[in-house]
Each structure stands twice: as C-alpha cells, then as structure tokens.
Design brief:
elongated, 2 domains, Immunoglobulin-like, three-stranded antiparallel β-sheet
C-alpha cells in the first residue's frame, strides 16, 4: 500500500500555514523517525524553517499594504507550498520504506493521511474503541461458527515475519481488546472454525492505537 498525505494547502490562510508549518517541523525534529538527513532532492528541516520565516516576514510587511508587498507575499506563499509538498514526499518515502510503521511515521510528522479505501476484507472490521488503548474487532457472523482472533506487533521486517498470539476463541463475532499501548501499531487477523474445520487465517489488518 502506498500512503498519501492530505496537506490542505489551498484552504489554509497564511497565519495557518505558518502555525502548521512550525508544528510539523517541531514534531519531525522531535521524532526518531526523521533523525537521518533528508535524502536529496528533499528539503532539510532547517531550509523549510527559513522558508517559513520568510513567509512570516512577507505577511507582516503585507499588512502595511502596497503592490510590491502583495507580490512578495504571493511569491513566499508559493515557496512555502513547494517546500511543504517536498517535505511531505520525504515523509511518504520514509513511511513506504517502513510499511510496518507507516501510519505511525505519518502521525509522528504532524501531517495527515488522505482518507482512501484500503485493501480490507469486507467482513473484517478493525477500529479503535471508545476508550484509549482499546480496539474493536468484528467479522461477518456465520451460523454455528467459532472465531479465532490473533494479534501481533512488529517494528521491522515484513508482514511474513509477524509473530501471532491468540487473544480470543469463541462464538462471538465481535470482541473488544483492552490494555493496548497508544501510539503502537497492532496487527490483527482471524479465522473461522465451522463444523470442526478451521478456515485459513485472514489477511492481516493493522491499526495505530489511540
């Protein structure tokens, strides 16, 4: 799955751009995910910080009016948009290079993922519960079936390297898992047992717990 980021640049006023940009830089600077130097041609955090400073200066000068100040502000807005877009490309590259932590990486950057349809099994729902540290699992019910739910966590490697642990076996097609660590990516899968015959396990579904 290739991840995409929703920047919402067109809807942002200049003050919002400045505030959002500084927030992104702080979160990325504090995150170990982005400790390595940005590979070219992506901008560095320092260069983006300079672009934001220039935008803030141009915005303040625009308050005094004048055609030149207006043109300079437009120029700096375009430079800001370009810098943030390139920074988003860097975040996506880091996320795609680490698929088991991709969502956590994007969240740590302070950016927002685009909402798009994931490759999910239609009868398997994995979502955060109402309470922090809880996840609700639900599958399409089958008459007289027994459901096996398993959980896994991982930080490196591929999906094939996940080590699974059974967390629930029973006749209920919906379970709530408690005591999970917020900010951690968890993987879930299930299998049905019908007339003492177990189906293959489903594809893994993952979620960042809140």
């Amino acid at each position: 799955m290739r991840y995409q980021i929703n920047l919402g640049l067109r809807q942002q006023s200049v003050p919002v751009k400045i505030e959002t940009g500084r927030s992104i830089l702080k979160k990325m600077g504090d995150s170990s995910f982005f400790a390595a130097p940005n590979p070219l041609p992506h901008p560095t955090l320092a260069s983006v910080d300079t672009v934001i400073d220039d935008l803030e200066t141009a915005y303040q000068q625009k308050q005094d009016g004048g055609k030149v100040a207006t043109q300079m502000l437009k120029k700096n807005v375009l430079a800001y948009n370009d810098a943030i877009i390139e920074l988003a490309h860097y975040v996506v590259d880091v996320a795609n290079a680490n698929p088991l932590q991709a969502e956590a990486i994007i969240i740590a950057s302070g950016m927002k993922m685009k909402h798009f349809t994931k490759a999910v099994i239609p009868d398997f729902l994995v979502k955060n519960g109402k309470l922090s540290g809880t996840v609700k699992l639900r599958v399409r019910a089958t008459k007289r079936a027994v459901y096996i739910f398993e959980i896994s966590t991982a930080t490196t490697g591929s999906l094939n390297d996940l080590i699974w642990k059974t967390i629930s076996i029973g006749s209920k097609a919906s379970v709530i898992i408690m005591g999970l660590t917020p900010g951690t990516t968890y993987y879930f899968r299930y299998a049905k047992v019908i007339k003492n015959v177990q189906d293959d396990f489903s594809d893994a579904m993952h979620i960042v717990v809140v």
